[in-house]
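Field reference: sequence -> structure
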Amino acid sequence: IYGARAALARGWLNGSATEMNAAKTGWEKISRYHGAICGGLTANPMLAGGNPSTGIFNDTLGAWAEAFVCAGMGAHAVWAWDELERLVFNALPACVEETRVQLVQRVNSLAAQETQQGSFALTLGRLARGYALAIQSAVTAWVDGFAVNMLIPGKYAVCDNKMVLTIDAQGERYAIKMHMKNDQKAFFHMRLPAWASSSEILVNGAPTAEYRLVDGCIGIERVWHDGDEIVAVLEQPVMRHSSAYHQATYLTRGPQVLALSADGDWAYALCGNGKVTESGVTAPFAPIAWKKGNNAPVDVPVLPALMGEIRTLPLTPYADTPVRVALFPRGDKA
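Structure field:
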């Protein structure tokens, strides 16, 4: 983590593309080999083993948030904002319960109370610093304007405090309203999230042809007035990802990883894509043989035999489900 940040700094100074790409290269290897589906990683400091039932040290998540912020400030770094957004909406909020801060979390867990290992002071410090940097970096200043890197609701001062942006989210509709005393010419830059299957951009309620799309980002340059509003309508389908640990699979909707509550039966294989209903998100599952140990499922079975009829079960956001299974065996060949 710290090596990635140091390499980035050296790359900025000497122009080395290898060093500037160190954070991306390192994170891709961790994600591929260690099941980092929620923005977390294995608790083993040597990155040995990627079982999703292995505990994740939450102080590490705060440090990764800092690394992603640093990487996101570079050119062509949309990937860093994608990963940071996944952290902000999944692993970071899962660190905090109503009465305490968790030192360890698991992607797949059958118990809410995890064995607490590590330092509360270190965890609190890194989480607070990493989360604060992540929120501050949601909107950043540019020389000729500002950039909306993540659509996190809140108020943000830009253009040397001459303008305040208010970001509001209602379902798939994200509204960015501008407040200022005097008209302001500025370049508006916004990242289109990787999870959006389609997008529509409205300026003051009307479709606009003013923007240009470059590297997954839109750009609009104009004179802005008090009360101007940009609305991004971003479709959020349920997406299935099948390139995880042990040929496992998981589901997302928008920036959120979805999980099955493991308060009752939990040994299921995912047998298809999820579906959005009036009551939430559901998906097809079939019971399988899946062993558990130390209050967690053991290694994800590879294409296990189905042991019953397929049933439709509800899913909830990862961070809202402390007793959960989020990384599933595949019940088909998809």
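Note: The chain has a mean pLDDT of 85.
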